[in-house]
Amino acid sequence: MKDVFRFNEFFIHQRLILQLLDSYHKTILSTLLQNTKYYDDHLKQTFINDSFTEVITKYFAAKKIKSLEELLITNSKLKKGQVIWFYNNFYFKGIVKASKDFEKGKLPAYAEFHIHLKRYNKTIKGKYNYEHVHWCSATDRLSGHKSKFVVAYIDGIQKNEIVLRPMFISDRFLKDEILYEYDSPSLKLDISEIDEFNQVECVPHDYEELDIQKNKDISEERIKHSIAEILYENNIPKDWGGESSDLFTNHIHIDGKRYNAAFLLKGPSKFHQLTVKDLGVNGNQIVRLFDEPAEILVLQHCHYIKAEIYKTMDAFASRFDNIRRYCIIDGIDTQRLLMAYEKI
Asked: From its phi and psi, is residue 182 left (phi > 0), alpha (psi between -120 and 50) or beta?
């Protein structure tokens, strides 16, 4: 399950991308572009776009470029001119007017996008020139609230605002998934997708015996041993302050295929809805979890889990140099799992 992202690009600023690339990746791009002479004009433009997309993907993987989300989570210092990527639900506006201005020769013809990140109290915004927009479908796909993948320079930083200068705006897909138009499959696994845990479906979410308050009396140690027993994992490490994960195993299977997995377990000592603040300074427990040489990362908590945790896990799982899957098991799914395998 080695995932690779693929993209359906709507905006590509080729000059900005060329300024970004080093000589090695420019050589790769030049080699790819040599093949454009074999295509007609329409297919040629498609191939050129695909070539730029392929090279910038390789560049980001090689340089380990981090997402803006990861940089904000870890409270990293941002600077003007820094290159980032960001996948989120932006609000796009102005592209219809920009397209009309472009047709009339009124340049530059700008459209805009923005998103407010309440968790950080920051607005992320930018504008892009319609001159670099490709495909007529962009008028619809870059209007209103849309989840899009953006590659950009940081063009300005203020206390509550980050201004981006985009070089690439696109849809994002997983390469080994069935490609549904404008669908963006998640890297998140449902607990039932893990073969060893699939009996959890025998305990439906509306089962009347489920009560998250019962988890208050189930220790983290008991949960760890129960999961290890379900996985037939005999190597159960003792807890200590510097561990990257609470349980590491190669007894996980997805659709019959075996994978390494690392678990971060959060017991009832923090019996409330889990937030990033509960995961160490700047979420460093998640940082350490993703330092593990595992293909699947699992976060389990005895209570409910805030949406910001899902965003955080997805940001780390989406690293270009090491795309991975993750699973989040909240208190209800924890109880379903333990009931299904008669551990409680």
From this structure: left
| Structure tokens, 21 | 């690339």
What CA–CA distance (Å, rounded) separates 42 from 139? 19
pTM: predicted TM-score of the whole model, two decimal places: 0.84
- pLDDT band, residue 2 (cuts 50/70/90): low
**pLDDT band at residue 37 using 50, 70 and 90 as cut-offs:** confident
Strand residues in the chain grouped as ranges (E): 5-12, 83-93, 110-117, 122-129, 144-158, 161-174, 188-189, 247-254, 257-266, 296-301, 325-329
Could you write out the DSSP letters of every residue in 178-220?
---TT----SEEPGGGSGGGGGGGGS-TT-TT--GGGGGGS-H
Per-residue DSSP letter, 280: S
Element (H, E) at 15: helix 14-20
Query: What residues contact 77, with CB distance under 8 A and at least 6 apart?
Result: none
- Sign of the CA dihedral running 223, 227, 232, 235: negative
Largest CA distance in the chain: 71
One-letter-per-residue 3-state SS of 166-177: EEEEEEEEECCC
Find all residues with CB under 8 Å of 251, minimum gap 6, and list them: 196, 231, 232, 233, 258
CA-to-CA distance for 269 and 105, rounded, in angstroms? 64
CA–CA gap between residue 214 and residue 15 (Å, rounded): 59
Q: Hey, what's the torsion of the CAs at 204, 209, 215, 218, to 10 degrees?
A: -100
